[in-house]
Amino acid sequence: MPSFLDPIAGFGVTFTTMFRKVTTEEYPEERKPMVPRFHGRHVLNRYSDGLERCIGCELCAWACPADAIYVEGAGNTDEERFSPGERYGRVYQINYLRCIFCGMCLEACPTRALTMGHEYELADNNRADLIFEKQDLLAPLSTGMVPPPHAMAPGTTERNYYAGEFDQPGTSDATDRGDEKP
Amino acid sequence: MTMTTASTTGDVLEPRPDLVTVTIDGVETAVPKGTLIIRAAEQLGVAVPRFCDHPLLDPVANCRMCLIEVEGMPKPQPACAVTCSDGMVVKTQMTSPVADEAQRSVMEFLLINHPLDCPICDKGGECPLQNQAMTNGQGDTRFDGPKRTFPKPINLSAQVLLDRERCVSCARCTRFAEQIAGDPFIELLERGSQQQVGIAEDVPFNSYYSGNTIQICPVGALTSAMYRFRSRPFDLVSTPTACEHCASGCSLRTDSRRNAVMRRLASVDPEVNEEWNCDKGRFAFRYLESDVRLTTPMVRVDGELRPASWDEALVTAAAGLKAAAGKAGIITGGRLMVEDAYAYSVFARRALGTNDIDFRPQGSSAEEEQFLASRVAGAGLGPTYADLEKAPTVLLVAFEPEDESPIVLLRLRKAAKTGTQILSVAPAASRGLAKTNGTWIPAAPGAEPTVIAGLDENTVTALSQPGSVILVGQRAAVTAGLLSAVGRLADRTGAALGWVPRRAGDRGAVEAGVLPSLLPGGRPVADAAARVDTAAIWGVPEVPEAPGRDIPAMLAAIEGRELSALVVGGVRLDDLPADAEAALRATEFLVVLDTHAHGLVELANVVFPVAAAPEKAGTFINWEGRQRPSSQALRTNLMSDARVLAALAGELGVVGLDGDLARLRAQLGEFSGWEGVRVGSPDVAAATGEPGPGLLLATWRPLLEATVLQEGEPYLAATARGREVWLSAPESAALGATEGQLITVTSASGSVTAPLVVAETAEGTVVVTGDAHRVLGQSGERVQIAVEGQG
Known about the structure:
Chain A is of the alpha+beta class. Chain A has helices spanning 6-18, 59-63, 104-108, 134-137, 158-162; strands at residues 42-44, 69-75, 87-95, 114-116, 131-132. Chain B is α/β, with parallel strands linked by helices. Helices cover 29% and strands 20% of the residues of chain B. In chain B, a hairpin with a 3-residue loop joins strand 23 (518-519) and strand 24. Chain A binds chain B through residues 55-59, 61-62, 72-75, 85-87, 110-111, and chain B through 118-120, 124-125, 152-153, 228-232, 234-235.
């Protein structure tokens, strides 16, 4: 049995909502920082001298439930060194048409080479451009970094690198975050 | 009633005297005496973890991983080294806390010095150490000191890399090298934590079988240079294939990633290659990715070869072959799968209407043809590898198994261990023969028929024992009278006679009738009944009756204008006799079917690209006569020889030629079991060796040399054995040369300089090993020798 108070009750919801804080985000004019552990686009990190952390072990590809990662390893030589140690990732591709941003690859990565940043604008009008190659994923060179190939720091072995002596401060989980510090 | 039935029909097995009863984890089982506990447990489905144990190697109990509890023994025992005895009660890690604790402790101990660099290790993902650390290890270690380290990796050979940090000293590799291959180039050195696998200084691990150590290494200590960092097990698509390199007929597993072969492993086939293969079969597959692979048909227009469509190439080829009607022949190589060889055989008889077809570019004789027709074609299976193993005596004639059929050598070694006597009629006592503990019967090149006819009574008696085997190599063809003599010896002694060709397709070609005098299944062309039978299977009124020409006759016929067109499949110019190039240039119309562009393509009028062995399915027939089916490992647009020939026949207006594999196989099957007339054994007299100046050359093709199928694999090529000049001690002394001195050997076709090895060689013979045959020519040539620098 409808009551004459029903329309007023309905407007009651409208009126209370009118005075609430709006949740609309003015994207893309205004971009809000993501939560610290947001899973955005991957980054292939570097050591502080610019050598790549990736050793091409393919564990990320193995862990990937969507088969989005393709890696080919290759051997470093004294003349042409991309990473400390014997092996580096010669080919590194992530297919963002497949990636489900679960982050299993990060857990699998033994050198913390692969992390996820906060970039989420991954839309395009063709498929080919959504397969990111190694050069698209590598972290940009910051101060003090020399682009590989180059030798390891004098007097060091890969063990020094793995022990954390060449870690970049504040970059244990992403280098291109740049928005907020946890 | 059931009870009664059971007791009367003997459902209750009487214990056999050679069985012992053991109880493993509370389950009683009977196993033959001498069975190792680990094998008995396997039969019950209990997997005891292990590293050093390998069913084909002698037990050593080096790794201690398989410790189990045996009732009545004070300490845990290694299951891989203790044999079952009657009434033994065994408790594995499944039921015994003691065994479980022992295994966990051993695993913890093995991992103390293991670098745990699984992410960069090629074994990662298929590593017994990784797997068993998960199943039988613990998550943590109590060891917190620095790990023992070594510089890594080091080269044991150009191909085999050793990472000593990863080694668990199981000695599988060193035992394989010593017990199976007979190449003890590697050994465990040092003691305690410094224990490591090593080679003698400057003596690399250049064994033809070295790749097997990589496959059986239970950790990532041994890896191959060619597979280094190339992929992970989960990337690989595995296909069962047969090896296309030699007539041993190994089962292989071809692992490909993104339609490119990454590696090949030996598959388990107890009847043929057991669990082994040779390095050529394992590593030589990069030829598939060669820059000179043929991918499109080509047609010669105005003297120039240019790519063409299939239609154009087929029309041009058909027109050329039609123009040469009745004057066209076929030359194939010995590397065809049997279905393709059969297609050539049918194409010759039906589309070209000729018996001019031959598969033996590398030296042949009419005597060989008769021998193949009488004793090999349609002979079915045998003698087999198992026969070699059981044989009381095996006689090798013109056959160097290590180079020419390496898996035969492994079987002969296995046989020799159980008392088989190996004899070899050869120009020299080779290292391969020494590995089989064999006896050398000296015979200078050309003198083998005489030596065989005059074998002493003891040898003949030994060969007359039931089960004895004579193996004759393909090289016997070039010695007049040798195959006749071998046939007579086999008849006289009753020994089984095996013909061991060098290439994978040779036996298949014989069975398919790729010979001028032979139709498929051992049917002689000369026999009317055989021709009628063949015509009936093919559904044609008749098959050509005129006797065909072999390769030398075909080449001569081209020069004599009796042949004007040739179809050539899978033959390299350097396979053919030296004067062949001129004849091929004189051929009016040359159709080439091949995988790679090489010398012959330059002479061709029409070129058809065909699929290489891993790119198609098919069957090889190995020297035993055993079918070795091979699946298609790679996707390709290329067609098999049989499909191309079927298309060409269609263009020629010949219907009913089939390129379909299943139908080819079915039709080939109809040719088995010929019971009609067979060609008789050859009876050719031995050539009388005329004394001449200098020495007689003896040489054979080595396993590893620069051939098309071995291209693109520098690590393998670097393990090839170099050339050596073998001279007997008196002849070295007469020459005034000492071991290691450089000797120049000069034949009519060229000269080779190589270090001297003082060896046992037949009188008046110089053996030149390695790929010297390319320069000097075949065995039996007269050569001059001189010490380098002394003119």
